[in-house]
């Protein structure tokens, strides 16, 4: 064991920052062995290291023995300081705990009570809104039931004056249901049993019935008196006028109803709105007139004695179309609560705005035509040529008679077009095109119709 101030350990080596245990062990093994010896003797370097460790332990023991009193005093001072710090920290922790409890009583508990009040108030408001929405829905449902009393009865005269109010009531209910589906006013309305029953048992059947009645009125629209005047005596002008006014009113109500009940989307504006129900009903009316006229005229050309009566019927159908066109042009679109106003006014190439100005505009745009009579005659002529060719191809008496009376048929068809293209006398109040414009337009339509019949005869 080394004496004071002396040591076998080279402290400079062990305390060097770049000391490496592996390098030191390698050097120690090489100093105490011949590298060429096999096996190496590791007991000597190992005893050297163990001795160094024992030396360090002895040195530590010596130091602690000599300096025991200062170490104890230092340790005691640190312990007392630690106890003082711990007491101060505990006092601070106790103060913080008391402050937190006071804060919890004054803030947290009050906040929890306030949060319960807020939640209760919010749910009461939602319940109140839901109750108002249910009340509104029930009121509209009762109103709709009263309006549908004169509309939904089969076999009885339809009270057309209730059609538009009923349509507006349906739009009110539709707006209420849309707001409910979007989570707005009346959220949860769809889960209320009475509202579900109202929607399934009253609203949906009423809408179907109202649309069916309006489509029926459009299908039955007729203002021409050609057939009546040809086989009936005159007189009863006042009754005819009353019937005419009734027809106008019924048709106007039906058309406005179909316009209002046409499907809409949330993003639909006045400019982009397409009244599909209205256009479909009017297109069906035109198609029915075309189909009936084509079938009747085909039969009449095969049996000429009935041609005069058939052409009179076709003229009457076209007069109804002329009257319908004038009526559509005179009807302005009613206010629609579900249509958002356009943010910009888009102007088409013709200078007209995209918004619907009257009921005739969207139909003409859909049919891609300038007028309904022109559409009727040109479509009828386009389908008639093939029918005449079939009659001639079958030969026989019908074909020979048709060829023989070619000039008479030409004049009768021309007269049919001219007669059918005039506005019915009973519908003059609806307005119409000037007579000069009519003459020029219908001359072209007459030529198309005559060509469809006479053209195959000249081949």
Strand content: under 5%
Which structural class fits the helix and strand makeup? mainly alpha
| Total DSSP E strands | 0
Q: Biggest sheet: strands, sense, closure?
A: none
Sequence stretches where pLDDT stays below 50 over 5 or more residues:
232-239, 344-353, 434-440
- Rg from Cα: 51 Å
Task: Give the distance, in angstroms, between the N- and C-terminal Cα atoms.
Answer: 144 Å
Q: Helical amount among residues, as a percent range?
A: over 70%
Number of helices: 15
Large-scale geometry: elongated
pLDDT averaged over residues? 83
Order of helices and strands: HHHHHHHHHHHHHHH
The gist of it:
71% of the residues lie in helices and 0% in strands. It has 459 residues and is an all-alpha fold. 25% of the residues are buried.
Q: Could you explain the architecture of this structure?
A:
The chain is an all-alpha fold. The chain folds into 3 domains: 56 residues; 135 residues; 177 residues, no CATH class. 71% of the residues lie in helices and 0% in strands. It is built from 15 helices and no strands.
């Amino acid at each position: 064991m080394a004496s004071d101030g002396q040591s076998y350990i080279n402290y400079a080596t062990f305390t060097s920052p770049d000391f490496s245990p592996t390098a030191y062990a390698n050097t120690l093994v090489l100093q105490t062995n011949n590298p060429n010896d096999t096996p190496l003797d590791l007991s000597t370097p190992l005893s050297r290291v163990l001795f160094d460790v024992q030396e360090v332990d002895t040195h530590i023991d010596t130091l602690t023995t000599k300096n025991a009193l200062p170490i104890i005093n230092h340790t005691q001072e640190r312990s007392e300081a630690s106890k003082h710090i711990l007491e101060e920290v505990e006092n601070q922790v106790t103060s913080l705990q008391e402050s937190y409890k006071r804060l919890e009583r004054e803030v947290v508990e009050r906040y929890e009570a306030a949060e319960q009040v807020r939640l209760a108030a919010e749910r009461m408001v939602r319940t109140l809104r839901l109750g108002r929405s249910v009340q509104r829905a029930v009121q509209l449902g009762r109103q709709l039931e009263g309006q549908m009393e004169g509309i939904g009865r089969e076999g009885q005269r339809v009270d057309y004056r209730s059609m538009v109010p009923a349509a507006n009531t349906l739009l009110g209910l539709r707006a209420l249901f849309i707001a409910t589906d979007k989570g707005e006013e009346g959220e949860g309305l769809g889960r209320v049993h009475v509202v579900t029953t109202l929607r399934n048992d009253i609203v949906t059947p009423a809408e179907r019935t109202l649309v069916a009645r309006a489509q029926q009125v459009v299908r039955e629209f007729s203002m021409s008196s050609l057939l009546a005047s040809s086989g009936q005596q005159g007189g009863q002008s006042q009754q005819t006028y009353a019937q005419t006014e009734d027809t106008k009113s019924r048709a106007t109500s039906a058309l406005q109803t179909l316009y209002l009940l046409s499907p809409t989307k949330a993003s639909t504006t006045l400019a982009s709105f397409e009244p599909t129900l209205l256009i479909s009903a009017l297109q069906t009316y035109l198609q029915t007139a075309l189909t009936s006229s084509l079938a009747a005229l085909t039969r009449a050309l095969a049996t000429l004695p009935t041609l005069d009566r058939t052409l009179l019927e076709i003229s009457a159908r076209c007069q109804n179309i002329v009257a319908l066109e004038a009526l559509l042009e005179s009807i302005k679109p009613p206010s629609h609560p579900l249509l958002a106003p356009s943010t910009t006014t888009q102007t088409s190439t013709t200078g007209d705005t995209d918004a619907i100005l009257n009921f005739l505009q969207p139909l003409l745009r859909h049919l891609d035509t300038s007028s309904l009579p022109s559409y009727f005659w040109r479509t009828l002529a386009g389908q008639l040529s093939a029918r005449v060719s079939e009659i001639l191809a079958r030969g026989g008496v019908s074909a020979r008679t048709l060829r023989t009376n070619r000039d008479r048929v030409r004049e009768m068809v021309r007269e049919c077009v001219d007669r059918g293209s005039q506005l019915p006398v009973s519908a003059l109040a609806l307005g119409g095109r000037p007579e000069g414009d009519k003459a020029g337009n219908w001359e072209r339509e007459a030529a198309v119709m005559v060509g469809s019949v006479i053209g195959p005869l000249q081949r």
